[in-house]
Fold this sequence. Notes:
There is one protein chain. The protein is of the alpha+beta class. It has one domain. 33% of the residues lie in helices and 28% in strands. A 4-stranded mixed beta sheet has the order 1-2-4-3, with helices on one face.
Amino acid sequence: MGSMGNIAIRANSFAEWLSEAQRGDSYIYHVGLIANDREVALSEGNSKLSRDERKRVWREARDAWMAYEGRQVCLTQRRVSEGVYEYRATRR
Length: 92
């Protein structure tokens, strides 16, 4: 992730990526519909993800939002298909 504009599709965690990311690097922290997929309290029928996977999505989304509030990243999303979005953080 050293050069400008690299995309990390998976790292061990958002926090790990953020600590190493350089300006312009991006991290895709979720692909799906985050409004459903991060809700740990939802029954299995509302999301295709397991409870543990939904917890991971919740943590990653929380960490991305906190980095955004700290002006460390810009957050964007891109529609992949009907009801599926790519959620990306880009290092400032």
